[in-house]
Specification:
single chain, 723 residues, 4-stranded antiparallel beta sheet, 21 helices, disordered C terminus
Length: 723
């Protein structure tokens, strides 16, 4: 009537992977169809767009020209000759800066230019230029010639098309998360029903202690039937016990009558047992782990994603927003000011996570996540209201603490509610949530910032944090009874975040290993410095400084995230396959090549390609990081075998993650210092060149046979961090 326990385990282990493959395949097909539909729509609407938008652009430029002409005409009342006017070029330059559709403004007298500003080589005659007479200077035949940039409408159309594509991609990812959220509970309930029926078939009618049913009608009906069966069985047992007691209590009843009653009770009891197959079985509760893990992951996924998305909305414009605030007592340059919010956030994340793991375990994952979500609500709301840089820094510190608390609590939920069969899939889904948030947040945040402004976008982040808090309060299940255990002891998996504090002995022991120290200094720290320094600091400022928008900066960061989402699993499988086929360790080669590509990304900014240069940078950086991120974490277990045996896996990976995240914090400061003293191009090239030099030194050290070290038991590889 029921499948063997091993079959159930295999089903539970294989189902999420199979379903995820189907979902990702369906999403890819939908993405192709949506892109094709967008391309067809864009192709059909371009002529109409040009016909309708171009006249509005010309009228807007003409209105700006009439305003300028009226302002210049006021000088005629004071009888100032046209050629004696001063400050006209600055006035024209300010108008061009306010109106990106205007490329050139010229004050003409008798057809000859008196003053002009803008790119004269783009000036065209006819429909793309407006000629406005200057009142009061009719005798000098004064005209104001306002030239419209002929590429403005094309750029506007291209921006709109890119926004459509970005929205389509983000909508697909968000739809997938929504599908997981809505279907997670249903899938868990179905799995729970399947496990419950299998357990009942084996005779286990007791309530399932770890199943977290959502209370569907058929689930309640099944529990009611189980309760009825248990009640009937208990009634028969009690009747039999009463008959046995009556046998000794009442001597007046004939033996034959007592025997017939006892025989009837035993027959009824056997009938119930034969009907419901009651049996004592320790396997009655097997199979619950998969359904419970699916339920917990489904309940945790939505609030965690929303909390990450709330913070990622500001990635594309936070440096620009910070540079526009009043510095207060902080007397540093604008470039350093722009880096301080990122530095404060990353530093708090780096320093707080080692202590948060045990804290969240002590107070409970649910309570810890709710505290983090509530703190995030306050941090985002206050950041949107911040009027000075010191206030913003305080609120970003709050946001960093909230992010770290939620990160550790969400990861702890997975580790506490999964077992050896489901933990790998749970951690993979955890990293997937982070990457999907990085895809959606910066791109949508950039579009919102261009459309409604920086502060309203920060308010939108606060609204997402509030929604995350409400869903977490409503849906997160209580902590499991055995949450106090250390899951790393059972599985050998070291969490990507929230590692235990290594302690002074752990620091000393790990830093005594020179190869581990070189791994940190030549690979872990440079990889994080270039990632945060480029993607979250220099790219947003550079894109806006070129005259583009925060939306374009968001698209660049989104492209990096998409490359990571697509390539990280492929690269990890590639490394695993090479290791199995060639019986050697290819991780060092992958790390060296990844670092080299990341360094070359910075050198790409020396190419005079306009916006194509940062595009090439982001692509190379994404490929390089995807090549090195998983092998780099795997190398820790290879170079620290003796330390893993002596001080433990938690201490070694705690040092690794903490030093790595310090690279996150220092990245924007290094980039800001280079930007202040040398400019954008030199900052990109200097950081890229430094990482390239680290790649060369890393190859010299690690691509030769390692010295023989004391043997130690094989250590499991920690999952790559996603932050």
């Amino acid at each position: 009537m029921s499948a063997p326990a091993s079959s159930h385990a295999a089903t539970h282990a294989a189902w999420p992977t199979y379903t995820q493959r189907r979902l990702w395949g369906a999403m890819g097909l939908i993405l192709v169809l949506v892109i094709a539909a967008i391309a067809a729509t864009v192709g059909m609407m371009y002529p109409a767009f040009d016909d309708r938008i171009a006249p509005q652009v010309r009228e807007k430029a003409a209105t700006a020209g009439r305003s300028l002409a009226g302002l210049i005409g006021q000088a005629a009342a004071h009888e100032i000759p046209l050629k004696k006017l001063v400050g006209v070029e600055d006035l024209f330059a300010g108008m061009i800066k306010q109106h990106p559709e205007v490329s050139h403004i010229a004050l003409l007298s008798g057809g000859q230019p008196v003053a002009e500003a803008g790119a004269a080589h783009t000036a065209v005659q006819g429909a793309m230029a407006a000629r406005i007479p200057v009142p009061g200077y009719e005798g000098e035949r004064a005209d104001l010639n306002v030239t419209i940039d002929p590429r403005y409408v094309q750029r506007l159309f291209a921006e709109m098309s890119l926004d459509l594509l970005v929205v389509a991609v983000v909508a697909l990812f968000v739809s997938l998360e929504l599908l997981y959220f809505l279907a997670g509970g249903l899938v868990a309930d179905v799995s729970s029903l399947k496990s419950r029926m299998a357990a009942m078939a084996r005779g286990a009618f007791a309530p399932m202690a770890t199943a977290q049913s959502l209370g569907m009608a058929w689930s309640r009906a099944l529990e009611a039937r189980a309760a009825d069966a248990s009640y009937a069985y208990r009634e028969r047992v009690n009747a039999l016990a009463a008959m046995i007691r009556a046998r000794h209590a009442d001597k007046g009843i004939a033996f034959a009558d007592r025997f017939r009653a006892l025989r009837a009770s035993i027959a009824a009891l056997r009938d119930v047992r034969r009907t419901f197959h009651f049996a004592e079985s320790r396997q009655g509760r097997r199979g619950e782990g998969g359904s419970n893990a699916a339920l917990v992951l489904g309940a945790m996924r939505a609030p965690f994603f929303l909390l990450l998305l709330a913070d990622d909305l500001s990635r594309s414009f936070l440096p620009l927003f910070a540079s526009q605030l009043t510095p207060g007592p902080i007397n540093v340059s604008a470039n350093v000011i722009a880096s301080l919010p990122i530095f404060a956030f990353m530093l708090v994340v780096a320093l707080s996570q080692p202590a948060l793991g045990s804290w969240s375990e002590r107070i409970g994952r649910r309570r810890a996540f709710l505290i983090g979500a509530a703190l995030a609500c306050a941090a985002h709301l206050l950041s949107a209201l911040a009027q000075s840089l010191p206030a913003l820094l305080v609120f970003r510190v709050m946001g960093g603490a909230a992010w770290a608390i939620a990160f550790v609590a969400a990861q702890g939920y997975i580790l506490d509610h999964t077992d050896s069969r489901t933990r790998t899939a749970g951690l993979a889904a955890f990293v997937g949530i982070i990457m999907v948030s990085m895809v959606c947040g910066p791109s949508i945040g950039g579009i919102l910032a261009d459309g409604i402004g920086h502060r309203p976008t920060l308010f939108a982040g606060a609204a997402l944090a509030v929604l995350s808090l409400l869903i977490a309060w409503r849906r997160l299940p209580p902590d499991s009874a055995d949450a106090a255990r250390d899951p790393r002891e059972a599985t050998g998996l070291m969490p990507a975040g929230g590692a235990a504090s290594p302690g002074s002995f752990g620091w000393a022991a790990t830093f005594a290993n020179h190869r581990f120290l070189l791994l940190l200094l030549l690979a872990a720290v440079p990889a994080k410095v270039i990632l945060i320094g480029f993607c979250f600091y220099l790219i947003p400022l550079y894109i806006v400084g070129m005259g583009s928008t925060s939306a374009m900066a968001g698209r660049m960061i989104m492209l990096y995230s998409v490359v990571m989402v697509l390539l990280v699993p492929l690269m990890a499988n590639w490394v695993t396959g090479l290791r199995a086929r060639r019986a050697r360790e290819p991780e060092a080669l992958f790390v060296a090549v990844g670092l080299a590509l990341s360094g070359l990304a910075g050198l790409a900014m020396a190419l005079p390609l306009g916006l194509l240069s940062p595009l090439l940078l982001v692509l190379l950086l994404g490929i390089g990081q995807s090549l090195s991120i998983s092998p780099q974490a795997a190398m820790v277990a290879e170079v620290c075998k003796a330390e893993l045996a002596s001080v433990g896996q938690s201490a070694v990976y705690g040092v690794y993650r903490l030093v790595e995240r310090i690279g996150n914090a220092t990245g924007p400061l290094i980039a800001a210092a280079l930007l202040e003293f040398a400019g954008f191009q030199t900052a990109f090239i200097a950081i890229g060149g430094g990482v390239l030099a680290c790649a060369a030194l890393f190859a010299i050290v690690f691509l030769r046979p390692a010295p023989v070290r004391a043997p130690a038991p094989a250590a499991a590889v920690a999952p790559a961090g996603a932050d």
